[in-house]
Write a structure and sequence with these properties.
This protein has 11 helices and 12 strands. By secondary structure, the protein is of the alpha/beta class. The protein has a domain at 2-177: Alpha-Beta Barrel (TIM Barrel). The strands form 3 sheets. An 8-stranded parallel sheet has the order 11-10-9-8-5-4-3-12, covered by helices on one side. Strands 1-2 form a two-stranded antiparallel ribbon. The chain starts with a strand and ends in an 8-residue tail after the last helix.
Protein backbone atom coordinates (compact mmCIF):
# COMPACT_ATOMS: atom_id res chain seq x y z
CA UNK A 1 0.00 0.00 0.00
CA UNK A 2 1.08 3.59 -0.60
CA UNK A 3 0.20 6.56 1.59
CA UNK A 4 -0.76 9.75 -0.21
CA UNK A 5 1.26 12.44 1.55
CA UNK A 6 -0.60 14.69 3.97
CA UNK A 7 -3.64 12.41 3.92
CA UNK A 8 -4.94 9.31 5.64
CA UNK A 9 -5.40 7.59 2.28
CA UNK A 10 -3.46 4.33 1.97
CA UNK A 11 -3.97 3.02 -1.56
CA UNK A 12 -2.93 0.11 -3.73
CA UNK A 13 -0.15 1.52 -5.95
CA UNK A 14 -2.22 1.15 -9.13
CA UNK A 15 -5.44 3.05 -9.76
CA UNK A 16 -8.15 1.48 -11.90
CA UNK A 17 -9.22 3.94 -14.58
CA UNK A 18 -12.96 4.33 -14.93
CA UNK A 19 -12.98 6.07 -18.32
CA UNK A 20 -14.07 2.84 -20.04
CA UNK A 21 -17.03 2.11 -17.74
CA UNK A 22 -20.22 2.60 -19.70
CA UNK A 23 -18.20 3.03 -22.90
CA UNK A 24 -16.09 0.05 -24.04
CA UNK A 25 -17.09 -1.90 -20.92
CA UNK A 26 -20.81 -2.24 -20.28
CA UNK A 27 -22.30 -2.45 -16.79
CA UNK A 28 -21.84 -6.19 -16.37
CA UNK A 29 -18.27 -6.18 -17.67
CA UNK A 30 -17.47 -3.13 -15.54
CA UNK A 31 -18.76 -4.92 -12.44
CA UNK A 32 -16.66 -7.98 -13.28
CA UNK A 33 -13.56 -5.80 -13.76
CA UNK A 34 -14.17 -3.97 -10.49
CA UNK A 35 -14.77 -7.26 -8.68
CA UNK A 36 -11.52 -8.75 -9.97
CA UNK A 37 -9.52 -5.62 -9.24
CA UNK A 38 -10.80 -5.46 -5.67
CA UNK A 39 -10.35 -9.20 -5.13
CA UNK A 40 -6.71 -8.78 -6.21
CA UNK A 41 -6.06 -6.09 -3.62
CA UNK A 42 -7.01 -3.04 -5.68
CA UNK A 43 -8.76 -0.28 -3.76
CA UNK A 44 -8.15 2.91 -5.78
CA UNK A 45 -10.65 3.88 -8.50
CA UNK A 46 -10.30 6.95 -10.73
CA UNK A 47 -13.19 8.39 -12.72
CA UNK A 48 -14.59 11.77 -13.82
CA UNK A 49 -18.00 13.36 -14.17
CA UNK A 50 -17.41 13.79 -17.93
CA UNK A 51 -16.93 10.05 -18.59
CA UNK A 52 -18.27 9.18 -21.16
CA UNK A 53 -19.95 12.25 -22.62
CA UNK A 54 -18.05 11.82 -25.92
CA UNK A 55 -20.03 8.68 -26.80
CA UNK A 56 -23.08 9.33 -29.00
CA UNK A 57 -26.19 9.24 -26.86
CA UNK A 58 -24.28 9.71 -23.60
CA UNK A 59 -24.59 12.81 -21.43
CA UNK A 60 -21.70 12.36 -18.98
CA UNK A 61 -21.74 10.70 -15.59
CA UNK A 62 -22.07 7.18 -17.00
CA UNK A 63 -18.85 5.98 -15.37
CA UNK A 64 -19.69 7.51 -11.99
CA UNK A 65 -23.10 5.83 -12.05
CA UNK A 66 -21.55 2.42 -12.68
CA UNK A 67 -18.95 2.94 -9.95
CA UNK A 68 -21.70 4.11 -7.60
CA UNK A 69 -23.89 1.12 -8.41
CA UNK A 70 -20.96 -1.25 -7.79
CA UNK A 71 -20.17 0.42 -4.47
CA UNK A 72 -23.80 0.17 -3.39
CA UNK A 73 -24.12 -3.46 -4.45
CA UNK A 74 -20.77 -4.79 -3.21
CA UNK A 75 -20.20 -2.46 -0.24
CA UNK A 76 -16.41 -2.88 -0.35
CA UNK A 77 -14.37 -1.64 2.57
CA UNK A 78 -11.57 0.89 2.30
CA UNK A 79 -12.02 1.85 -1.35
CA UNK A 80 -10.68 5.27 -2.38
CA UNK A 81 -12.63 6.99 -5.17
CA UNK A 82 -11.24 9.91 -7.14
CA UNK A 83 -13.32 11.93 -9.59
CA UNK A 84 -12.94 15.18 -11.50
CA UNK A 85 -14.76 18.38 -12.45
CA UNK A 86 -14.73 20.89 -15.34
CA UNK A 87 -15.61 18.86 -18.45
CA UNK A 88 -19.16 17.56 -17.87
CA UNK A 89 -21.46 19.11 -20.51
CA UNK A 90 -23.69 20.56 -17.78
CA UNK A 91 -20.84 21.65 -15.51
CA UNK A 92 -18.11 23.13 -17.67
CA UNK A 93 -15.39 25.24 -16.16
CA UNK A 94 -14.39 25.87 -12.59
CA UNK A 95 -16.47 28.76 -11.31
CA UNK A 96 -17.50 28.45 -7.68
CA UNK A 97 -21.09 27.76 -8.63
CA UNK A 98 -20.11 25.09 -11.14
CA UNK A 99 -17.65 23.36 -8.80
CA UNK A 100 -20.29 23.12 -6.08
CA UNK A 101 -23.06 21.89 -8.36
CA UNK A 102 -20.81 19.38 -10.09
CA UNK A 103 -19.54 17.97 -6.79
CA UNK A 104 -23.09 17.51 -5.52
CA UNK A 105 -24.05 15.75 -8.76
CA UNK A 106 -21.01 13.46 -8.54
CA UNK A 107 -21.83 12.61 -4.93
CA UNK A 108 -25.32 11.61 -5.96
CA UNK A 109 -24.10 9.42 -8.83
CA UNK A 110 -21.41 7.79 -6.72
CA UNK A 111 -23.69 7.36 -3.74
CA UNK A 112 -20.99 8.37 -1.25
CA UNK A 113 -21.02 10.89 1.58
CA UNK A 114 -17.74 12.48 0.51
CA UNK A 115 -15.45 12.33 -2.52
CA UNK A 116 -12.08 11.02 -1.37
CA UNK A 117 -9.97 12.85 -3.96
CA UNK A 118 -11.45 15.63 -6.10
CA UNK A 119 -9.49 16.78 -9.16
CA UNK A 120 -9.80 19.97 -11.13
CA UNK A 121 -9.81 18.14 -14.48
CA UNK A 122 -8.53 20.97 -16.72
CA UNK A 123 -7.50 24.53 -15.99
CA UNK A 124 -10.14 27.20 -16.58
CA UNK A 125 -8.54 30.40 -17.82
CA UNK A 126 -11.88 32.25 -17.73
CA UNK A 127 -12.34 31.85 -13.98
CA UNK A 128 -9.99 33.56 -11.51
CA UNK A 129 -7.86 30.90 -9.87
CA UNK A 130 -8.64 32.43 -6.46
CA UNK A 131 -12.32 31.65 -7.01
CA UNK A 132 -11.64 28.02 -7.95
CA UNK A 133 -9.23 27.41 -5.08
CA UNK A 134 -11.68 28.91 -2.59
CA UNK A 135 -14.51 26.78 -4.00
CA UNK A 136 -12.47 23.59 -3.62
CA UNK A 137 -11.49 24.64 -0.12
CA UNK A 138 -15.13 25.19 0.79
CA UNK A 139 -16.04 21.69 -0.38
CA UNK A 140 -13.46 20.29 2.05
CA UNK A 141 -14.66 22.51 4.88
CA UNK A 142 -18.25 21.43 4.26
CA UNK A 143 -17.32 17.73 4.21
CA UNK A 144 -18.28 17.05 0.58
CA UNK A 145 -14.66 16.39 -0.41
CA UNK A 146 -11.85 14.93 1.69
CA UNK A 147 -8.82 16.03 -0.35
CA UNK A 148 -8.27 18.21 -3.42
CA UNK A 149 -6.08 17.64 -6.46
CA UNK A 150 -5.35 18.97 -9.96
CA UNK A 151 -5.02 17.43 -13.42
CA UNK A 152 -3.63 18.86 -16.67
CA UNK A 153 -2.31 22.02 -15.01
CA UNK A 154 1.01 23.63 -15.82
CA UNK A 155 3.69 23.73 -13.13
CA UNK A 156 3.32 27.50 -12.81
CA UNK A 157 -0.43 27.26 -12.31
CA UNK A 158 -0.03 24.52 -9.72
CA UNK A 159 2.44 26.67 -7.80
CA UNK A 160 -0.05 29.52 -7.94
CA UNK A 161 -2.85 27.23 -6.72
CA UNK A 162 -0.72 26.17 -3.75
CA UNK A 163 0.19 29.80 -2.94
CA UNK A 164 -3.44 30.90 -3.05
CA UNK A 165 -4.55 27.97 -0.91
CA UNK A 166 -1.97 28.87 1.72
CA UNK A 167 -2.96 32.53 1.63
CA UNK A 168 -6.62 31.60 2.06
CA UNK A 169 -5.89 28.96 4.66
CA UNK A 170 -7.75 26.26 2.72
CA UNK A 171 -6.88 22.73 1.63
CA UNK A 172 -3.86 22.43 -0.67
CA UNK A 173 -3.78 19.84 -3.47
CA UNK A 174 -2.30 16.52 -2.42
CA UNK A 175 -2.06 14.96 -5.88
CA UNK A 176 -1.41 15.86 -9.51
CA UNK A 177 -2.72 13.80 -12.41
CA UNK A 178 -0.43 14.34 -15.41
CA UNK A 179 0.12 12.60 -18.75
CA UNK A 180 3.18 10.47 -18.05
CA UNK A 181 4.55 7.19 -19.39
CA UNK A 182 7.59 5.63 -21.06
CA UNK A 183 6.92 7.45 -24.34
CA UNK A 184 5.80 10.74 -22.81
CA UNK A 185 8.26 12.02 -20.21
CA UNK A 186 8.07 15.80 -20.65
CA UNK A 187 6.76 16.37 -17.12
CA UNK A 188 10.11 15.30 -15.69
CA UNK A 189 11.37 18.79 -16.55
CA UNK A 190 8.80 20.72 -14.53
CA UNK A 191 5.91 18.83 -12.90
CA UNK A 192 8.09 16.17 -11.24
CA UNK A 193 10.43 18.71 -9.57
CA UNK A 194 7.39 20.71 -8.45
CA UNK A 195 5.76 17.62 -6.98
CA UNK A 196 8.96 16.74 -5.17
CA UNK A 197 9.52 20.17 -3.67
CA UNK A 198 5.85 20.57 -2.69
CA UNK A 199 5.27 17.09 -1.33
CA UNK A 200 2.52 16.40 -3.85
CA UNK A 201 2.07 12.90 -5.26
CA UNK A 202 1.62 12.00 -8.93
CA UNK A 203 -1.20 9.82 -10.25
CA UNK A 204 -0.25 9.54 -13.94
CA UNK A 205 -2.84 8.94 -16.65
CA UNK A 206 -2.24 7.37 -20.09
CA UNK A 207 0.19 5.15 -18.18
CA UNK A 208 0.12 2.64 -21.05
CA UNK A 209 0.28 5.27 -23.81
CA UNK A 210 -3.26 4.62 -25.03
CA UNK A 211 -2.49 0.90 -25.23
CA UNK A 212 0.85 1.09 -27.04
CA UNK A 213 2.75 -0.06 -23.95
CA UNK A 214 0.77 -3.28 -23.85
CA UNK A 215 2.86 -4.34 -26.85
CA UNK A 216 -0.19 -4.99 -29.02
CA UNK A 217 0.34 -2.10 -31.42
CA UNK A 218 3.61 -2.43 -33.32
CA UNK A 219 2.76 -0.73 -36.61
CA UNK A 220 2.24 2.92 -37.48
CA UNK A 221 -0.55 1.76 -39.77
CA UNK A 222 -3.67 1.69 -37.60
CA UNK A 223 -5.19 -0.66 -40.14
CA UNK A 224 -2.65 -3.30 -39.12
CA UNK A 225 -3.87 -3.31 -35.51
CA UNK A 226 -6.80 -5.07 -33.97
CA UNK A 227 -9.99 -2.95 -34.17
CA UNK A 228 -10.43 -0.84 -31.04
CA UNK A 229 -11.33 2.76 -30.19
CA UNK A 230 -7.69 3.36 -29.25
CA UNK A 231 -5.90 1.47 -32.02
CA UNK A 232 -5.12 4.54 -34.14
CA UNK A 233 -4.01 6.57 -31.11
CA UNK A 234 -1.73 3.79 -29.88
CA UNK A 235 -0.28 3.15 -33.33
CA UNK A 236 1.23 6.66 -33.49
CA UNK A 237 3.87 5.54 -30.98
CA UNK A 238 5.02 2.60 -33.11
CA UNK A 239 8.11 4.44 -34.33
CA UNK A 240 11.56 2.82 -34.39
CA UNK A 241 12.25 4.38 -30.99
CA UNK A 242 8.92 3.22 -29.62
CA UNK A 243 9.59 -0.33 -30.77
CA UNK A 244 12.97 -0.22 -29.03
CA UNK A 245 11.16 0.58 -25.79
CA UNK A 246 8.89 -2.41 -26.31
CA UNK A 247 11.92 -4.60 -26.97
CA UNK A 248 13.61 -3.64 -23.69
CA UNK A 249 10.34 -3.82 -21.76
CA UNK A 250 9.69 -7.24 -23.27
CA UNK A 251 13.06 -8.55 -22.11
CA UNK A 252 12.40 -7.28 -18.59
CA UNK A 253 8.88 -8.68 -18.64
CA UNK A 254 10.19 -12.13 -19.52
CA UNK A 255 12.64 -11.99 -16.62
CA UNK A 256 9.77 -11.31 -14.19
CA UNK A 257 7.22 -13.54 -15.94
CA UNK A 258 4.82 -10.62 -16.38
CA UNK A 259 3.49 -8.66 -19.34
CA UNK A 260 4.99 -5.61 -21.04
CA UNK A 261 2.08 -3.60 -19.65
CA UNK A 262 3.00 -4.65 -16.12
CA UNK A 263 6.58 -3.55 -16.66
CA UNK A 264 5.49 -0.15 -18.03
CA UNK A 265 3.37 0.38 -14.91
CA UNK A 266 6.15 -0.82 -12.61
CA UNK A 267 8.56 1.64 -14.24
CA UNK A 268 6.19 4.50 -13.40
CA UNK A 269 5.85 3.26 -9.82
CA UNK A 270 9.64 3.41 -9.51
CA UNK A 271 9.71 7.09 -10.46
CA UNK A 272 10.06 9.79 -7.77
CA UNK A 273 6.77 11.18 -6.37
CA UNK A 274 4.52 8.67 -8.20
CA UNK A 275 1.76 7.32 -5.95
CA UNK A 276 -0.11 5.10 -8.37
CA UNK A 277 -0.31 5.01 -12.17
CA UNK A 278 -3.82 4.90 -13.64
CA UNK A 279 -4.67 2.13 -16.09
CA UNK A 280 -8.02 0.94 -17.35
CA UNK A 281 -9.32 -2.45 -18.41
CA UNK A 282 -12.18 -2.85 -20.85
CA UNK A 283 -12.06 -6.64 -20.48
CA UNK A 284 -11.85 -8.84 -17.42
CA UNK A 285 -8.86 -10.64 -18.93
CA UNK A 286 -6.79 -7.44 -18.73
CA UNK A 287 -7.08 -7.04 -14.95
CA UNK A 288 -4.28 -9.45 -13.94
CA UNK A 289 -1.70 -7.42 -15.90
CA UNK A 290 -2.80 -4.27 -14.10
CA UNK A 291 -2.59 -5.91 -10.69
CA UNK A 292 0.88 -7.25 -11.51
CA UNK A 293 1.87 -3.72 -12.51
CA UNK A 294 1.05 -2.68 -8.98
CA UNK A 295 3.10 -5.39 -7.31
CA UNK A 296 6.14 -6.31 -9.43
CA UNK A 297 9.30 -4.44 -8.46
CA UNK A 298 11.95 -3.71 -11.05
CA UNK A 299 15.64 -3.70 -10.19
CA UNK A 300 17.59 -0.45 -10.31
CA UNK A 301 19.37 -1.74 -13.42
CA UNK A 302 16.06 -2.50 -15.15
CA UNK A 303 14.71 0.95 -14.36
CA UNK A 304 17.94 2.45 -15.71
CA UNK A 305 17.65 0.42 -18.92
CA UNK A 306 14.13 1.70 -19.47
CA UNK A 307 15.23 5.23 -18.63
CA UNK A 308 17.98 5.04 -21.23
CA UNK A 309 15.87 3.62 -24.05
CA UNK A 310 13.01 6.06 -23.43
CA UNK A 311 15.02 9.27 -23.16
CA UNK A 312 13.70 10.42 -26.50
CA UNK A 313 10.35 12.23 -26.66
CA UNK A 314 8.31 12.37 -29.88
CA UNK A 315 8.14 16.02 -30.94
CA UNK A 316 4.50 15.75 -32.01
CA UNK A 317 3.08 13.70 -29.11
Amino acid sequence: MTRIARTDLDVFPLALGGNVFGWTADRDESFAILDAFHAGGGDFIDTADAYSAWVPGHTGGESERIVGAWLADRRPQGVTVATKVSQHPQFRGLSATTVRAAAEASLERLGVEAIDLYFAHYDDAETPLEETVAAFGQLVQDGLVRYTAVSNYSADRIREWVRIARDLGVAEPVAIQPHYNLVHREIEADIVPLASESGIGLVPYFSLAKGFLTGKYRSTDAGDTAPSPRAAAAAQYATPQGLQILEVAGRIAAAHDVSIASVALAWLRAKPTVIAPIASASKLSQVPDLLAGGTVDLTAAEVADLDDVSEWTPSDM
